[in-house]
């Protein structure tokens, strides 16, 4: 029995491959500085562990609404309104088991076979895999020449600011350019802002706060 062509076309994660190599070298006694994986260098804070334990002890272990815990969805919407200037309500929020699944679910919901998705190089490797799993095709673009990547098949633009792996932050002018292109060409924008708190001398702006990005 063979796997589907779609899944067979997805290559092994380079990040996981490097982690495996680093761990193997460590097990051989080599002195390794591992830059492969973005992970905190501390364990989960005790108050979070205690809260999780208490929830399980209290029987908070059953199915929730498919969109997520209503109180959590409202808390996320309130955060978006307060910190990001996005007029969101709980109805606009879906809770997922991690950011990677949120991205996959978004792409699979927006992209059909043959649709094209614009990515900016360098990009987190997971974006391309999600697009391919959805049956779409990646169009690599330069931030300086975004219109050159547009075709009649373009469906989605994925942006990541602050960026992984380059660390750059998109400014207001560039975000407005992307907003204008999306509106003019009836495109969707998927904005990955997971690193919004890891920022130094720049200001994080959510493209979702701009007019027309509702």
Quickly describe the structure:
The chain is built from seven helices and four strands, in the order H-H-H-H-H-E-H-E-E-H-E. By secondary structure, it is α/β, with parallel strands linked by helices.
Topology:
Blueprint: H1 5-8, H2 14-27, H3 46-57, H4 70-84, H5 99-110, E1 116-120, H6 125-133, E2 137-141, E3 154-160, H7 172-184, E4 188-192
Parallel strand pairs: 1-2, 1-3, 3-4
Helix pairs in contact: 5-6
InterPro entries: Aminotransferase_I/II_large, AspAT/PAT-like, PyrdxlP-dep_Trfase, PyrdxlP-dep_Trfase_major, PyrdxlP-dep_Trfase_small
Protein name: Aminotransferase class I/II-fold pyridoxal phosphate-dependent enzyme
Domain Aminotransferase class I/classII large: 30-201
Q: Would you give an account of this structure?
A:
This protein is an alpha/beta fold and 214 residues long. Among the domains are: 36 residues, no CATH class; 113 residues, Aspartate Aminotransferase, domain 2 (3-Layer(aba) Sandwich). It is 37% helix and 10% strand. It has seven helices and four strands; from the N terminus they run αααααβαββαβ. The protein has a four-stranded parallel β-sheet, sandwiched between helices. β3, α7 and β4 form a beta-alpha-beta unit. α5 crosses α6. The longest helix is centred in the middle third of the chain and has 15 residues. It is globular, with a radius of gyration of 20 Å. The mean pLDDT is 94. This is Aminotransferase class I/II-fold pyridoxal phosphate-dependent enzyme. Its cofactor is pyridoxal 5'-phosphate. Homodimer. Keywords: Aminotransferase, Pyridoxal phosphate, Transferase. Belongs to the class-I pyridoxal-phosphate-dependent aminotransferase family.
């Amino acid at each position: 029995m063979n796997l589907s062509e779609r899944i067979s076309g997805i290559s092994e994660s380079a990040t996981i491959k490097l982690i495996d190599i680093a761990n193997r070298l460590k097990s051989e006694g080599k002195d390794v500085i591992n830059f492969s994986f973005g992970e905190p260098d501390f364990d989960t804070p005790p108050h979070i562990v205690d809260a999780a334990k208490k929830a399980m002890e209290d029987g908070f272990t059953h199915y929730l609404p498919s969109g997520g815990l209503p109180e959590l969805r409202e808390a996320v919407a309130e955060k978006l309104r307060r910190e990001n200037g996005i007029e969101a309500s709980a109805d606009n929020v879906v809770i997922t088991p991690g950011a990677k699944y949120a991205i996959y679910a978004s792409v699979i919901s927006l992209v059909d076979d043959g649709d094209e998705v614009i990515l900016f190089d360098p990009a987190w490797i997971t974006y391309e895999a999600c697009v391919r799993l959805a049956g779409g095709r990646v169009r690599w673009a330069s931030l300086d020449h975004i219109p050159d990547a547009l075709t009649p098949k373009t469906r989605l633009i994925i942006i990541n600011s602050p960026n992984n792996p380059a660390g750059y932050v998109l400014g207001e002018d560039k975000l407005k350019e992307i907003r204008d292109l999306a509106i003019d060409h009836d495109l969707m924008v998927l904005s990955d802002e997971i690193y919004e708190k890891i920022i130094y001398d720049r200001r994080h702006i959510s493209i979702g706060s701009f007019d027309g990005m509702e």
